[in-house]
Amino acid sequence: MGSPTEEGEEKEEEEEEEEEEEEEEEEEEEEEEEEEEEEEEEEEEEEEEEEALSYALKQVDGGWLVWVQSSPAL
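Now predict its structure.
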């Protein structure tokens, strides 16, 4: 068995490793949440574009189909 100081140092190292693992897990969860939010926003934008497109396709000007295209905001 090692001396009490060595055991204390080992415990500290273990605790630090656990803390680092927890922080990494939290960061991964945050990244996943951000990705999910981005996907939801993209889906909403696509739905809005589809609605706008279907509306634009219904617009008729003198027998010609009016095509409305909006450029995405950059």
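The chain is about 75% helix and 5% strand.
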